[in-house]
Amino acid sequence: MTRRWPSAVLAGGLFLFAGLPLLLLLGRAARSQEVAWVAAWTSPDAARALGGTLLTSLGAALFAFLVGVPLALLLVRTDLALKRPLKATFTLPAAIPPFILGMGWVSLANPKAGLLNLALGAGLFDIYGALGIAFVLGSAGLPLVFLATTAALSRIDSSLEEAARISGASPARALLTVSLPLALPAALSGAALTFLFAASAFGVPYLLGVTATPPTPTLTTRIYSEVLMGAGGLERAAVLSVELLVLAGAVLLLSRWLTRKGEVRLSSGKGLSLRPMPLGPWRAPLTTLAVVLALVLVVLPLLAVALTSVQPVWGQLEGLTTKHWGAVLANPRTISAAGRSVVLAFSAALLVTALGLAVASTRRRWLELLAGAPYAVPGTVLALSLLIAFSRDIRFIAFERVAFVLAVGNTLWMLLIAYTVKHLAFGARNASDALAQVDPSLAEAARIFGASRARAFVDATLPQLRGALGAAFLITFLVCMTELTLSVLLIPTGADVLGTLLFELQSYADPGAAAVIACAFVLLLLAAQATQAWLTRKAAR
Amino acid sequence: MASVELADVHKAYGATQVVKGVSLSIATGELVALLGPSGCGKTTTLRMVAGLERVDRGLISIDGQEVDGPRGSVPPERRGLGMVFQSYAVWPNRTVAENVAYPLQLKRVAKPEIERRVAEALGWVRLSTLGARLPQQLSGGQLQRVAIARALVANPKVLLLDEPLSNLDAALREELRGEIAALRARLGTTMIFVTHDQHEALALADRVAVMNRGVIEQIDRPDVVYREPATPYVATFVGGANQLDGAVDGGQFVVGEVRFALPPGTTAAEGPATLVVRPEDLHLGGDGPALPLSARLFLGSATEYRFLLGDRVLRAVGPPQEGATPSSRWPVRLARVRLYPRAR
Q1: A486: closest CA among A307, A358, A291, A341?
Q2: Contact check, Cβ <8 Å, B83/A264
Q3: ipTM value
Q4: What is the value of pTM for the model shown?
Q5: What does the DSSP assignment read for B194-213?
């Protein structure tokens, strides 16, 4: 019964703003001089960039896996103390831009001026370089492993472990030989997603890699610097993007496969909760360990950012000041950047929600997959493809007739397009999940009593989608407010948004001022989370 | 093989008393069924024997050795039991053979010996050819067979079965019931069997323990439980019965205005009593009181008649009766009854 033209229009739009730019990027890479290809594979710089991406992403995935899986086991299946606050703390990095954690670690572990080094003796820690990047991205990606493993563990039918006990296995042995292998595909899939997240990350590798000695380039930071170089750089950037795309695609497929494999194994589960395993004498030491880990991985870097925002001189422990706060908040540049960010994030969130609902309403699986695809494309690659497609030079060559309609190169429209395309997945997924829950007979009843199709949708279906659509709007708004990667590459000259301002202040000028903006971000995100938790609780009552 | 002894076992979850003083002794090689409706405490009792739940009060011993009580409890892995779960609990990431081998691996049995015994156990449940399969490739009945082989492979002292057939369809249930009986005849393992299905309990068990609200109301041979139910509850739950509260008065049973003649040979004290009569013992015709007939249901081998007595419905099952149509009145007669005196 669904009509064809809405799907066609949506698919056309998606093609114009996501598919075509990516194709042009591929074309650009394919047509680029042999030199660029050869250089991309053989030049030591380019090889180092690929190596840097592989090393930091593998490191991050490994770190998240090795920390996240034991934590999930402890928090789901044992009588560890303080489970709720610990779970909330370890989940927190999912909501905070990794760049901010990176800033915190710069303040803590800069080899000369880091607070830890000042406190414990200079030169003890150095956060710069591949290991530092892997560590920061690993702790930022920790929720991906932790949450996936937690969810899988709590879905395992309790009788599976009980059967092992009766067969003669001790509680620990039953946990390790029965439940852990069953949760493993989910945990590995989380680790693969962490790899993808780390390989796509731009802010943290830039912050901790470019100025490291020796510098640790990654594909994303290399793409950025090639783009800054202009003309010939675009070619090389396009070639590097293809490398990154292939890597991301392969890892994404691996993660999907692991998830499916895990699903099959868990499908018989009734989800009865098992009695938590008593840790006995280990309870106190393990709880302490988990608390220390939560403090070090999450709380400490955020505190360091807060402290940096009130330090008179960066890298010195004495004194407190509000001068950064005053300077940033009174600066007209900050105010206009905040204004742009709010308008852009609000518009993008509105578009994502509306278009996501439209995509979901067509009930066409392929369209949903298509709408979700750009989210998996690394931000730098997406931004580069939009640059290539819509910047003035390319436009006239590529498609002459549409070009004048889309004179968006070097304007804020580019950002709006990028934000919307990238996060369309949030809107489509939320709306589609919610639509699947809605009882179609409610709208059918409205039709029987005389409502038109549209009227039935508005009166009977839409009210049930409100929660999901609100959540999609909120998350898109928050992510776009604090967005960095797309913004840095697509921002028109002479204008700022909050993300680019944060990036610029931290990278080149004024860590104190950057810390103020980062604090504001964290406060905004925490406030939003608290509000949402409160709304959920209220709705549940 | 071993005996099992429960003495005055209690268990509560929070404020809810689930098991309220169960005592039960099971001889070596015996098969006892715990029968009752859901929530009667039968599964909790079984899980306490398994060691998956602790007793609050009372003692459990296996083979004369105390495994749970005030002095502490032996964890399930050291009780040497086998258990078949209602949900099968076959590990989805292991093949059939690996599932069955697991208890032997934990006992550090040598590899060739494991292979031999796994093959033997799979033979018992007729799965010899499916050892390499993964559980996702099996049907429900096959999964339950894997669970049974796994529970038996290490020669458990006692085999515990928790509603082993209730997730299967009727035909498979019949088939597996027969197989459990055959296995038991062959291996002679002591078994405790939890079920809400009276046919299963009556068909399989040496003795049936009928549970209600956390206590055992009767434990006896199946035929005794059926023919001589100790309480009105047992009579109603096992076999189904009409239950009437009234009084015995001069050889008659009086419910409100209606007086039934008691069958000859019934000995009953005068006074308030509960009368239980099975549908097949309530006969149509004769010189009994005439009751309004509310419905007639054709059952195939017999016909069921429903009579109204005040606000109660009496069910009679017997050969079809010419002319007995709904809204007519028909005399009924008690052919065999059981009477339980009630406190005045």
Answers
A1: A341
A2: no
A3: 0.82
A4: 0.83
A5: EES-HHHHHHH-SEEEEEET
